[in-house]
Amino acid sequence: xxxxxxxxxxxxxxxxxxxxxxxxxxxxxxxxxxxxxxxxxxxxxxxxxxxxxxxxxxxxxxxxxxxxxxxxxxxxxxxxxxxxxxxxxxxxxxxxxxxxxxxxxxxxxxxxxxxxxxxxxxxxxxxxxxxxxxxxxxxxxxxxxxxxxxxxxxxxxxxxxxxxxxxxxxxxxxxxxxxxxxxxxxxxxxxxxxxxxxxxxxxxxxxxxxxxxxxxxxxxxxxxxxxxxxxxxxxxxxxxxxxxxxxxxxxxxxxxxxxxxxxxxxxxxxxxxxxxxxxxxxxxxxxxxxxxxxxxxxxxxxxxxxxxxxxxxxxxxxxxxxxxxxxxxxxxxxxxxxxxxxxxxxx
Length: 347
Prior knowledge:
Blueprint: H1 3-37, E1 49-51, E2 58-65, E3 70-77, E4 86-90, H2 102-105, H3 109-112, E5 119-123, E6 138-140, E7 143-145, H4 149-165, E8 172-177, H5 179-190, E9 195-201, H6 210-222, H7 229-232, H8 240-244, E10 259-263, H9 274-280, H10 284-311, E11 315-319, H11 327-344
Parallel strand pairs: 4-5, 4-8, 8-9, 9-10, 10-11
Antiparallel strand pairs: 1-2, 2-3, 3-5, 6-7
């Protein structure tokens, strides 16, 4: 055999060996990547649910509420790792649409917590409800509805989550934005055994104040509720129900509860975000409205901070240098709140 033939034979063996090594290690790497992405808890579709078109392991579930006598759509992403903690997320006054949560589709919360060992729970269709138990049924553009949201969120939904997703009824955080912010604080204050941390974004915290109460009724009517006084009665004098759902009146009940509360100043991020400028100009009335809403939230949040500091509450207040009442702000702030949420639940 010639030297050239020997050389070719040797090189062929070397190349074959290198290919074999590459295949072995490549296979290990592929297997590791596959194992890392697969999760038996997150990947398992629960009975009565379907995979949400949003993807990111979100399941679209219909949870029947005996108190409200109807199915409530709830978008859920199971914990990565099979943990028993959860984060409830409450939408604003107008929600996202009739069957989905803005936290999922606009806030991209499933991506923010994609690999965290926490179950995300986003109920939808709570428009204008303040997630409360109303004194009488609401008359809405979609018909007459029994509104027993507090009962659903604190008694009915926890049973479903424990049975189907392994969530501990007493190991939860709750987050809300705008309308959902004051509701989240109220629910956490009224159900300390259930909620161990609260995150409130761009909220309004003086619900029994006559001006705030009157504005609330007007906003509810804008959301399609024709009889908003069915919730807690007239704005003046403040009813016992209205006072009981006013975060500024619940300071004693909030003692020791970790809170992350944020708002912006109502100034659009036009110059730092060219895309925001492109959206703002053709939608100027909407931009102005969102700026006003966020400015009012900033004033309400600052007053709530003064009250919280005086009462010695365990709260973190964060004020964004710019931003309006929009998902661009809330999605960003949810990411900033993430370590506080996980930390409070020991994750």
